[in-house]
Amino acid sequence: MDVLYFAWVRERIGLPKERVDTSAATVMDLVRELSAREDRYALAFSDLSALRVAVDQELSDFDAPLGGVREVAFFPPMTGG
Amino acid sequence: MDVLYFAWVRERIGLPKERVDTSAATVMDLVRELSAREDRYALAFSDLSALRVAVDQELSDFDAPLGGVREVAFFPPMTGG
Amino acid sequence: MAMAAPEIDIRVQDAAFDPGALLSQFTPHAARAGAGAVISFTGLVRDLPGATGGLSRMVIEHYPGMTEKALHDIAQQASSRWSLGPVLILHRFGALTPEQPIMMVATASAHRADAFLAADFLMDYLKSRAPFWKKEFTADGAAWVAAKDSDEDALSRWR
Amino acid sequence: MAMAAPEIDIRVQDAAFDPGALLSQFTPHAARAGAGAVISFTGLVRDLPGATGGLSRMVIEHYPGMTEKALHDIAQQASSRWSLGPVLILHRFGALTPEQPIMMVATASAHRADAFLAADFLMDYLKSRAPFWKKEFTADGAAWVAAKDSDEDALSRWR
């Protein structure tokens, strides 16, 4: 699946988008898998209360299932308007 | 003093403005004086709850004093906006 | 934030106007005063689908002299209640046709709540406190628009 | 009144825009749909007087694809809650300078309350539900604008 990062999450992880082959069942499982990879991921995901997640371009939750999902995005709370 | 009429008050009385020489002490006294003149005045002033009054171009009340006043206007509730 | 002293622009005119053209002038002006939010409200003449042939025209009468003072006073009240940038009120008089703009208010503030509340306040006061009267003309005849009790009641929100 | 089916116009662009030019297009369109009231809200980039040399620029990042869907969804929600004519939402991304317009919403309705409430609702939802992130650049450095708890709290007004 495609994993996207925006704003300071993108800056901390150091890339806007990557292809991830995963069997993670939920967003939370994916977060644990990515955090285990490298410090920059662990740092970006260290405080989940400061993060939001979108699953297939819909705002979602960290316990959302990932079956059939093509795109997951992580970002801070939005500041448009 | 100048007495002005607007909207249907103007139409009922049949003129937009007239000069009135009066010793009326209050707006209410002026209304009684005008109503005694002719039916068209009596008709226009028959229901004071449907009228508003401005004294020297400020919204006012029927018991307002007229000493030193130059201009009194009678009209229905406003419908701008 | 400290906004520049509010500048009040009152226009009472019989000429038609384009609300967009006014907003194009107002917005940079508000921006220079430090505004982060600009609200415009435009009132339009609505047709009367119930009347034979619809509304042919609306004629707005006003009280020259008092009108400008009343609008200025309403704008001043808004500026003293909220932290505002410039304030614009334009109201037409004379003959209008359906779909034409009747009036417009524009407000600006650092944060959106002030400009929203001020625009709402200006509209409520303008409806019941500015000396305008609307008359509607249809094939069936002409009639003065009646004030609504709800217009007067709306003012109690602001006391 | 029966307003025409609402037409939703969503624009996400890096180009600068003139809110007045959009209002000039929107207003006759709203009038033809039977609207008596048109509201526009414009958000402007405010300077940062506390920062050395002020704000040099703001950069807005967004999530292409999701942004358009989120804005469309917010506009649909407004149209289903209130009796609206056309709805416009425009939001810029990319680099902006102080005093430039960031975004605009325009709403229209037969009577003013619906358009006012809908514009306020659109702004509240847009702030917390549309994927935009602002970064401010000054001589002291760059910083992502932090979301306010009050932005999230504002949504509870509409539940």
Automatic annotation (TrEMBL), chains A, B:
<dbReference type="InterPro" id="IPR012675">
    <property type="entry name" value="Beta-grasp_dom_sf"/>
</dbReference>
<protein>
    <submittedName>
        <fullName>Molybdopterin converting factor subunit 1</fullName>
    </submittedName>
</protein>
<dbReference type="Pfam" id="PF02597">
    <property type="entry name" value="ThiS"/>
</dbReference>
<dbReference type="InterPro" id="IPR016155">
    <property type="entry name" value="Mopterin_synth/thiamin_S_b"/>
</dbReference>
<dbReference type="InterPro" id="IPR003749">
    <property type="entry name" value="ThiS/MoaD-like"/>
</dbReference>
